[in-house]
Amino acid sequence: MKHLLSTDGLDRDQAIAILDTADRLKQALLGREVRKLPTLRGRTVITMFYENSTRTRVSFEIAGKWMSADVINVSSSGSSVSKGESLRDTALTLQAAGADCVIVRHPASGAAHRLAGWLKHTNTSVVNAGDGMHEHPTQALLDAATLRDRLGSLDGRRVAIVGDVLHSRVARSNVHLLTTLGAEVTLVAPPTLLPTGVEKWPVTVSHEIDSELASQDAVMLLRVQAERMTGGFFPSSREYSIAYGLNERRLKLLPEHAVVLHPGPMLRGMEIASVVADSPQAAITEQVRNGVHVRMAVLYHLLAHEEETS
Questions:
Q1: 234, 191 contact by CB (below 8 A)
Q2: Could you say which residues bind carbamoyl phosphate here (predicted)?
Q3: 264 is in an annotated binding site
């Protein structure tokens, strides 16, 4: 595997291999006073974020540093991008400077794929850390890792993804990955927040949350992405919360074993109530912890695995 651009391109064996590697790395770090592995010593990892991020950027940086890589952060405001340099020229500059892996977040869908195309004749790997409304593959992998921790195998498990599916790269990546791993996915959203062609996706679609909860093993709430909206997709935040927010009453409709996920940042009181976000069924902080180990595993498979098996 040279790049990780999409979960749509991952088969079941590849996905499970990454998740199993994440589990092994997690175990390898347990009990260590200094959380440091020599796996990527001498490698250079560059994060290039054209959109704001807390969880993804920090966890990639920690992942690289825990594996002894040199990690360098490049922001659009602090680089030549602010002077008008193109994405292509920036990528080629970073590759020429010695980047073994470029992790990119960009507001344009397909940006990571374009970057991988420009670097196809080099040894530099590309990881998609979120491109527009397209995909966010490492988020889906850490979500799957969290569900495996809580539920075991995902075969036959039922997962509801609730909210702003239309603008969510997290939803798209999770639909691909969770169905590949054997889960049954239900999308719950108002018609205005569902993408065109969703009827062709391997999912069930519902517009009513209460009737779905009793049969679910997990519920993933999505942030309403107001920054990507140019019109009225629902009457008001209050109306949205009433219709689709996971509150205390709805939490009680879920089976006791069911898991509540959220990719963050959470809009408490809108898509998720604080009492739910802080409940034992919520695995939101576990998602963040697993994100570090999953991103370590991705870097391992891109930069170390081939060397160790050749």
A1: no
A2: 55-56, 105, 136, 139, 264-265
A3: yes
